Amino acid sequence: MAVSVEGLASVVKGRVVEAGAPDYDESRALFNAMIDKRPAAIAYCMDEADVVAALRYGVEHGLRIAVRGGGHNGGGLGSVDDGLVIDLSQMNRIEVEPAAKVARVQGGVLLKDLLEASHQHGLTVPVGIIGTTGVGGLTLGGGVGHFSRGMGLTIDNLLAATVVLADGSVVQTDSEREPDLFWALRGGGGNFGIVTQFTFRCHPASTVLAGPVLHDIEDAADVLRWYRDFVPQQPDELGIWYGLVTVPPGPPFPEELHLRKTAAILLTQAGEEESEALREARSYGAPLMDGIAPMPVPVWSTAFDPVYSPGDQWYWRGDFVEELSDDAIDVHVRFHESVPTWKSTMHLYSIDGAASRVGNDETAWGYRHAKWAQVVAGVDPDPANAAAITEWCKAYSDALKPYVLAGGYSNFAMDEPDRVRGMYGANYDRLARTKAQYDPDNVFRVNQNIAPAA
Ligand SMILES: Cc1cc2nc3c(=O)[nH]c(=O)nc-3n(C[C@H](O)[C@H](O)[C@H](O)COP(=O)(O)OP(=O)(O)OC[C@H]3O[C@@H](n4cnc5c(N)ncnc54)[C@H](O)[C@@H]3O)c2cc1C
Q1: Looking at the domain covering 8-87, what would its CATH class be?
Q2: pLDDT of 81-101, one tens digit each?
Q3: Separation CA 258–CA 253 (nearest Å)
Q4: Dihedral-angle region of residue 359 (phi above 0 means left; psi in -120 to 50 means alpha; beta otherwise)
Q5: pLDDT, tens only, 113-167
Q6: Domain 207-412: which topology?
Q7: Does residue 318 line the site of ligand 1, with CB under 6 A?
């Protein structure tokens, strides 16, 4: 029987899309087309009062509540079957205060809009590598990207937040106000409330020298060993990660490389004058292509958007790596060979440098001792390939299990309740106590869910 949402449309100002409405299918769609959830209603909140009203309605009517920022979550945790989706996409205002180097960002903003707005002032916030990702989910999970070594994780640049709590009250939090909540928000996901505004520290960075350096896949073992040994020696200012990348079949790539598998090094350096570290990275080996060029930060930070557009099938798994052994590299090489589709990939993000100089207990993100955040992603537009990409991803990440830390990055996960404790590592118990304080009834449970401590 359909769940009733009678009266919801009269308590929120924004549009409410109910099951059966003409735009229901479009409205319920998530970035990952492998997830097919059918909520009872989607409430497009216009402001904080709408968020409070929708939340109160959902709680009073016993509905399961999901909060949707950018809708990118791999496991589809921005939606819920038969429940209420509180959608924040209309709450997309950004204010940048250039003198204070601060950006105030509403909870539904996408990375590309934040990057563009801060770029107008020669500033940036370190975020992820795809522009259509939501600031909300990315930040609450941690936020890894091109600038992690130099500027830290996204959460390391979070200065304050405005949060609607489970009881409908609104609080301001920062290192002094509600400090436990502020600690938990920085890595604990959407467990603690609905963030209607994030305040970020911005960094001066307008142009980057950045791009991919593509090596022959036959050289993957050597490239990985070089990458492992090279990165820890480099100054923080060099952004660098490794990727199993199949060359997209179109411009700007030369035709002879189209659909060729490569061992890619992705490099980022602020400013246009080439640093010694960047020069050295580019001079390694005999690349098939060196795509390093000067470009505005938002251009580089959205460069992969055309490849990873909404509506593909995704299955992925994330892990943290402290040491990249030769045995692990052998596993990578083996699974590089069997990559099932051209969009399927493996990324190994460097999270040493600034990201590693924060204590494991200073924020809820308890893997500062890891040197790499690894993600294996099976991706393809065709649902007929869903099983193949899922099996490859599972087999690949299972084979790497002996070489990774016990937990994984919550933002690079499917809906994996069995792995949640590991995702938060040694911080789990404190998170569970903070959950009991701020959301004792587990109203916010459509996420990598932390059960409130008894
Ligand atoms: C193509 C792609 C590229 C990615 N690249 C990166 C990357 O470079 N670096 C990285 O770290 N991660 C990356 N991710 C992972 C991404 O950070 C997570 O998928 C994240 O959950 C997406 O956030 P969202 O707001 O878009 O998702 P949603 O599905 O809308 O939400 C995800 C979770 O966050 C909660 N949430 C969202 N907004 C709020 C809010 N304002 N208040 C409270 N809870 C909220 C939701 O309830 C849900 O549990 C990528 C994902 C994809 C699909």
Answers
A1: alpha beta
A2: 999 999 999 999 999 999 999
A3: 7
A4: beta
A5: 999 999 999 999 999 999 999 999 999 999 999 999 999 999 999 999 999 999 9
A6: Vanillyl-alcohol Oxidase; Chain A, domain 3 (3.40.462)
A7: no
- pLDDT 10s digits, 169-208: 999 999 999 999 999 999 999 999 999 999 999 999 999 9
Given phi > 0 = left and psi -120 to 50 = alpha, else beta, which region is 245?
beta
Predicted local distance difference test score (pLDDT) of residue 1: 62
Mean pLDDT of the chain: 97
Give CA–CA dist 162/447, Å, rounded. Answer: 19
Ligand 1 center to 135 CA (angstroms): 7
Structure tokens at 444: 């916010």
Beta strands 65-68 and 84-87 are parallel
Residues 6 or more apart in contact with residue 146 via CB below 8 angstroms: 126, 129, 208, 210, 239, 241, 266, 268, 300, 301
Predicted TM-score (pTM) of this structure? 0.98
- Going by their DSSP bridges, the two strands 289-290 and 207-216 should be labelled as antiparallel
Report CA(137)–ligand 1 centroid distance (Å): 3
Atom from ligand 1 closest to the CA of residue 32: 53
What pLDDT, on the 0 to 100 scale, is given for residue 104? 98
Architecture of domain 94-204+426-438: 2-Layer Sandwich (3.30)
Closest residue (by CA) to atom 15 of ligand 1?
Answer: 411
Asked if residue 137 has its Cβ within 6 Å of ligand 1, the reply is yes
Please report where in the chains the tokens 């911005």 appear, as a residue.
Answer: 202
- CA distances (Å), origin 319, targets 197, 401, 412: 29, 9, 8
**Ligand 1 mean position, distance from CA 52 (Å):** 21
> Whose alpha carbon is nearest atom 44 of ligand 1?
190
The three-point CA angle 107-51-446 to 5° equals 75
- pLDDT higher than 90, residue 252: no
Nearby residues of 193 by Cβ (< 8 Å), 6 or more positions away: 163, 164, 165, 166, 171, 181, 438, 439, 444
Q: Give the pLDDT score at 425.
A: 92
Strand, helix or coil at 409? coil
Report how far residue 188's alpha carbon sits from residue 366's, in angstroms, rounded to the nearest whole number: 10
Query: What burial class does residue 306 get, using C-beta atoms within 10 Å of its C-beta: 0-12 exposed, 13-18 middle, 19+ buried?
Result: exposed
pLDDT tens for 413-446 read 999 999 999 999 999 999 999 999 999 999 999 9
Beta bridge partners of 358: none
Q: Where are the domains of the chain?
A: 8-87, 94-204+426-438, 207-412
